[in-house]
Write a structure and sequence with these properties.
The structure holds two protein chains of two kinds.
Chain A lengths: L2 H23 L3 H17 L11 H22 L3 H15 L6 H21 L3 H36 L12 H27 L26 E3 L12 E9 L4 E2 L6 E8 L1 E3 L2 E3 L6 E3 L6 E5 L9 E11 L3 E2 L2 E2 L2 E7 L3 E6 L4 E5 L6 E11 L20 H13 L14 H15 L1 E2 L12 H9 L1 E2 L1 H14 L4 E9 L1 E3 L4 E5 L3 E8 L5 E4 L4 H8 L4 H22 L3 H8 L7 H48 L5 H14 L1 H13 L1 H12 L10 H11 L1 H18 L7 H16 L3
Parallel strand pairs in A: 16-17
Antiparallel strand pairs in A: 1-6, 2-3, 2-9, 2-20, 4-11, 4-18, 5-6, 7-13, 8-12, 9-15, 10-14, 12-15, 13-14, 18-21, 19-20, 21-22
Helix pairs in contact in A: 1-2, 1-5, 1-6, 3-4, 4-5, 5-6, 6-7, 8-11, 9-11, 10-11, 14-15, 16-17, 18-20, 18-21, 19-20, 20-21
Chain B lengths: L11 E6 L1 H20 L2 H26 L1 E5 L5 E2 L4 E9 L6 E9 L6 H7 L3 E6 L3 E9 L5 E12 L6 E16 L9 H7 L7 E16 L11 H7 L3 E8 L3 E7 L1 H6 L1 H20 L3 E6 L4 E6 L4 H11 L13 H6 L4 E6 L13 E4 L11 H18 L1
Parallel strand pairs in B: 3-9, 12-13, 12-15, 15-16
Antiparallel strand pairs in B: 1-9, 2-4, 4-7, 5-6, 5-8, 8-9, 10-11, 13-14
Helix pairs in contact in B: 1-2, 7-8, 7-10
The chains are: A alpha+beta, B alpha/beta.
Chain lengths: 739, 396
């Protein structure tokens, strides 16, 4: 493939990657659907650099003016932002595709592709943007290198054209692509090395938002969760598979909690106020509990920390400026939020809380927090119940009493012992599970009819919100204090990350009933089979792939997107004297000092042995490569493969042929030195014909040597030593003659 | 040539920042501001990448250019109006690093002469020179004005790998290349008709040959024709001797250039006259005519001779001829007049024909009247117009 075609393909790929990166980041697939086909068509039409069609100047100028006017209109109506600039860049690029006359135009197209990639980074740090950029970067390096060669060639041709003479020959040797690729890899490795170093060393947290918010949200909260539920309005129902958080649990003894099939409930909010179909929390003043100076925010709920029997480490995907609910397993005793986030307890009794980014940040890409939980009931006033609990709907109250009575429990709280509240609640839970159907289809209640009443008496089917709301109402109707809890069920255990992956579609509602003051127990009236079916992780190959992708995304977010000053300090050893790279070096030096000359001697001996072994291995490898008659490892491996596959006899012949054919490589070198190199694509005999007029001396030799080469290489003939010597002599004579 | 010799001067290394580099730095600063302002880790990575790219570019291009050696391949003179190739031998003495994207151009003086200007815009390009490899590249050009191009140095530069900076090596290799006068297409049969006016075989050369004039006697050697034996002389001397004939005298052509007042005033006409003279000399030489040149205003007198390098000599002189100051004497030199006996004499006048400036038997042509000597074709007229335009442009 010639240089122009190589460049054309690489540049086309780069432009497409720029567009898809941005459209992925901006979640605007329409731009990709329109832009990519235009690019592909334009690239197809302009693949021949010598006969490249282009739009007339006036059309290009008109389109450019149109694009600028559109950008101005967009800026005036929606305000200037990254998306506006990116759209303008995209339009300019599409227009420019029709106006590629010179390498300068090509450079402009490539520059616009880079601008689109930068816009993608400014818009979103998502994994898929990162993946595309990881492809974009080597493509960019490769394309720019080819562009330099292409533009140099173009300039030389243009200079010749201006003089009215033919352009110089575009002759390159067979080693050109190999060397070019090696240089590209070297450039990429050097650039990435510097990038990693600067990424790690650059201090974070300085100068944030100094120029205002002009980048996209770095901490976009992802949730299917809502902290209030209006029955019939959708509520927590979400089919999005986007990951909300990861949760890793273990007992206080370190035994992992979780596994395939085990389900855990993560509470986000508690809804205990009901008014005509709307469930909401108690609300009240938000109490912010944080310490600006500390990197860890701690919240305690007054229980003895020794009561904790499990610990969960949660990683929340993104916290935006409006704050994010913390999801906690029941019953949290103490919480530690890592990083400079601000924690707010929204309901101390219900132990719910929210978290906010620090004042100088628009958002947090990730947030880690640790929850210590107790599963046993707290001691105290278990023998009494909260008085005055009722539900004002007469029909529901009657039904609840009938159900409890039918289950063999006393529906009257004044005569029923507190210890029987749990059994009564369970009767209601089981009755709902047995007698009502599950559906995700929303059916609005008729005007003037309570949605819970409608569910219980008319529709008789609904989703988790209806089941939870109905059970809460029925429990209250029989004097059991109950509330609706909303949050997520952690049901998808990911062995790749050893954590539960919680998605937006795992949002759920259930019930907490108070079995004695302060002793809240969880009940889930949603039919178990439906619950399992809905929250069961995807099975099969796709399920595994998705788990791996989630693990990769987690890794991406944890190591790249949320890399902050704390992570940097930990890595470099700023967090403590023994931590990070610096700590490691310090420890090594301490050991060295403590060990004295003996340790140094020992280290030198070990190093020497390792060095000698490595050098010896290298010498053996080089010797083997030479012995196999090829400097290329690939050829040597191929020779060994032939040896193993076909045995010694055939390998011996192949080696003999390879040894004989060395003269061909020598011929190529001589031609290169004479300034008439053979292009890789041209057969040697054709090259001899080409040289006939320009370099007759070479032509005759090339012709003879090529015929001998063909005979030995393809004709199965063995050249005699005299023949090889004669060829060598001719090549030496040709090399000695100046061109 | 495999490398720079001990006495060769080291090339001058330069880094030139140009527009793409400035843009790159601006984008890098923008990314830095964006990264710090938004605390965006991908932008921090992007910043690292762009700084890394800058470093990689400097290291790769610097290291690879360190091993570049250059030698201009000796080439012959150029001819005005004709394509010309100037070749360079590039050697990469580096053992590891290949070199890519090398542009080779002549570094001319700040105000180059007319002939040198054609070399100023030339460019040869080497896409790749492998480690310890030598490659010959060529730059093509078409000089339009005769003269001597003075080329003090050759500059090799590259923007590889990323085009951020232009790195150059300047090799001081002072050379001069003759750009000989244009070869104008002459009217068909013009030279043949001129030659027919000469007295063929007038006089004889002082060398033995195949003419009719007697040259001398020599001893018989085996293989001589018996018909050549001079029997009387053999009888007289007692040994066999043979007759030798003299080489016949070739047709000789004198070309005399006379600038006159018009030629001095109008450089276009004087250049035409020189190109016409050169064209006549070339055409005559191609037909085996001994050519000679006289430019009285420049005191140039080169008698006609049959010699391998005679044409080179007269064309080389024509490269350097300049129009004389006003009032310079342009009479036909006395010695030339004597030598022109039996020779064809052509007087080329830049302006009007002045018959007193050449021997009476001379044939006269005027540069101002191309119809009398230029081939009647569109191509010929285009070439002449190109020459005129180049001279006018150069004079401007």
């Amino acid at each position: 493939m010639n240089l122009a075609r190589r460049y054309h393909r690489a540049a086309g790929l780069l432009v497409v990657l720029g567009i898809t990166s941005y459209t992925t980041a901006a979640e605007a697939p329409m731009f990709a659907l329109v832009g990519v086909p235009i690019v592909l068509v334009a690239w197809r039409l302009t693949r021949d650099p010598d006969r490249r069609p282009h739009l007339p100047r006036w059309v290009v100028n008109t389109l450019l003016v149109g694009a600028i006017l559109y950008a101005a209109w967009r800026g005036a109506t929606r305000g200037a932002d990254v998306d506006g600039v990116a759209e303008l860049v995209l339009l300019l690029q599409l227009v420019k595709l029709g106006d590629r006359r010179t390498p300068r135009d090509d450079a402009q197209v490539l520059t616009l592709a880079v601008f689109l990639a930068i816009a993608a980074v400014l818009t979103s740090p998502r994994l898929w943007v990162g993946v595309q950029l990881l492809v974009f970067i080597p493509t960019l390096i490769w394309t720019v290198m080819l562009h330099q060669l292409q533009s140099g060639w173009h300039a030389a041709s243009a200079a010749a054209g201006a003089a009215g003479v033919a352009p110089p020959d575009d002759e390159r040797t067979a080693s050109f692509p190999v060397h070019l690729r090696a240089t590209a890899v070297l450039s990429l490795v050097a650039s990435l090395g510097a990038a990693v170093a600067i990424f790690i060393l650059m201090p974070r947290g300085i100068g944030g938002d100094f120029f205002g918010h002009w980048t996209g949200q770095q901490g976009r909260a992802v949730t299917g969760f809502a902290d209030q539920v209006r029955l019939g309005a959708g509520g927590v129902i979400s089919s999005s598979s986007e990951v909300v958080l990861e949760a890793r649990g273990r007992t206080i003894d370190g035994v992992p909690l979780g596994g395939a099939g085990a389900i855990h409930y993560l509470r986000g909010a508690v809804l205990d106020r009901y008014d005509r179909g709307l469930w909401r929390g108690a609300g009240g003043a938000i109490s912010l509990e944080f310490d600006d100076e500390s990197d860890v925010q701690r919240v305690r709920f007054g229980e003895d920390p020794a009561a904790a029997d499990s610990e969960w480490v949660m990683t929340l995907r993104g916290v935006d400026r409006g704050g994010q609910t913390l999801f906690l397993p029941w019953r949290p005793i103490g919480i530690e939020v890592h990083g400079r986030a601000r924690v707010s307890v929204t309901n101390r009794a219900a132990r719910t809380m929210r978290v906010y980014p620090p004042g100088d940040r628009a958002g947090l890409p990730m947030l880690d927090y640790t929850v210590r939980c107790a599963s046993r009931d707290p001691g105290g006033t278990g023998a009494t119940r909260t008085p005055g609990v009722f539900f004002p709907n007469r029909r529901i109250a009657t039904l609840a009493r009938q159900v409890v009575e039918g289950g063999g429990e006393d529906p009257d709280p004044s005569t029923r012992p507190v210890d029987s509240d749990g059994a009564a609640a369970r009767v209601i839970q089981d009755w709902l599970r047995m007698n009502y159907g599950y559906t995700l289809v929303e059916r609005a209640a008729p005007a003037g009819v309570d949605p819970i009443e409608s569910f219980l008496f008319d529709t008789r089917e609904g989703h988790c919100e209806y089941f939870a709301a109905a059970m809460t109402a029925m429990c209250r109707a029989v004097g059991i204090n109950a509330r609706m809890a909303v949050g997520y069920v952690a049901a998808e255990y990911n062995p790749a990350s050893a954590a539960y992956t919680v998605r937006a579609s795992n949002a759920h509602a259930w019930v907490e009933a108070e079995l004695g003051v302060g002793r809240w127990h969880r009940y889930d009236p949603t039919p178990t089979a439906e619950l399992v079916r809905l929250h069961r992780p995807a099975l099969g190959v796709w399920g595994r792939v998705r788990q791996w992708l989630d693990a990769v995304e987690f890794l991406w977010n944890a190591s790249v997107v949320s890399f902050d000053e704390d992570a940097r300090s930990r890595l470099l050893g700023g967090a403590g004297p023994a931590g990070g790279v610096v700590g490691g070096v310090e420890r090594f030096l301490q050991r060295l000092r403590a060990g004295g000359p003996k340790l140094v001697r020992s280290a030198a001996m070990t190093g020497g042995v390792v060095f000698i072994a490595s050098a010896g291995l290298g010498v053996i490898v080089v010797a083997l490569l030479r012995w196999k008659g090829s400097a290329r490892p690939g050829a040597a491996i191929a020779a060994w493969w032939r040896h193993a596959r076909f045995g010694r006899r055939r390998t011996g012949r192949a080696d003999a042929t390879a040894a004989q054919l060395r003269f061909y490589r020598r011929l190529l070198r001589v031609l290169e030195r004479r300034g008439v190199p053979k292009p890789a694509w041209r057969p040697p005999l054709d090259h001899a014909v080409t040289l006939a007029s320009a370099d007759p001396d070479s032509a005759a030799t090339v012709d003879d040597v090529a015929r001998a080469y063909y005979a030995a290489r393809f004709g199965g003939r063995t050249l005699s030593d005299a023949q090889v010597a004669a060829i060598d002599a001719r090549l030496a004579e040709l090399a000695a003659r100046r061109g | 040539m495999s490398g720079r010799g001990r006495d060769d001067p080291a090339p001058i290394r330069r880094y030139h920042f140009h527009m793409p580099g400035v843009m790159y730095v601006a984008v890098t600063l923008f990314i830095a501001v964006g990264a710090i302002n938004g605390q965006n880790n991908l932008l921090f990575a992007g910043l690292g990448l762009s700084i890394g790219g800058l470093l990689a570019s400097g290291v790769i291009s610097g290291a690879s250019l360190l091993g570049v050696r250059l030698r201009p391949v000796p080439v012959g003179p150029a001819t005005a109006g004709q394509a010309y190739r100037i070749r360079y031998e590039i050697t990469n003495v580096n053992r590891v690093m290949p070199v890519f994207g090398l542009n080779v151009e002549e570094a001319t003086e700040r105000r180059p002469g007319l002939a040198t200007r054609a070399f100023a815009g030339t460019r040869a390009f080497a896409a790749h020179v492998g480690p310890r490899r030598t490659l010959v590249v060529a730059a093509s050009l078409r000089p339009m004005v005769r003269g001597v191009a003075r080329l003090p140095a050759v500059r090799v530069w590259s923007t590889f790998p990323f085009g951020l900076a232009r790195k150059s090596l300047t090799f001081e290799l002072p050379r001069s290349i003759e750009v000989r006068p244009a070869d104008l297409p002459l009217r068909s049969g013009l030279v043949e008709r001129l030659a027919a006016r000469a007295l063929a075989g007038f006089g004889a050369e002082r060398t033995p040959g195949t003419g009719e004039e007697f040259f001398g006697l020599r001893e018989y050697v085996l293989g001589d024709s018996p018909r050549q034996i001079a029997w009387r002389a053999s009888a007289r001397t007692g040994a066999l001797v043979v007759r030798q004939h003299a080489m016949p005298s070739p047709i000789r052509l004198w070309v005399v250039i006379r600038f006159g007042a018009a030629g001095i005033a109008d450089r276009r006409l004087s250049e035409r006259a020189i190109a016409l003279a050169a064209s006549l000399l070339r055409a005559a030489d191609a037909q085996g005519v001994a050519v000679g040149l006289a430019v009285p205003a420049s005191s140039v007198v080169i008698p006609p001779r049959i010699e391998r390098r005679q044409l080179d000599r007269v064309l080389s002189v024509l490269c350097r001829v300049t129009a004389p100051p006003e009032g310079a004497a342009e009479g036909f030199p006395e010695a030339a007049a004597r030598a022109s006996q039996g020779a064809v004499c052509v007087a080329v006048h830049a302006g009007d024909v002045d018959r007193s400036a050449a021997p009476p038997h001379a044939r006269h042509f005027s540069a101002a009247d191309p119809a009398s000597w230029l081939e009647d074709s569109a191509d010929a007229r285009r070439i002449l117009a190109g020459l005129d335009a180049a001279v006018a442009e150069g004079a401007a």
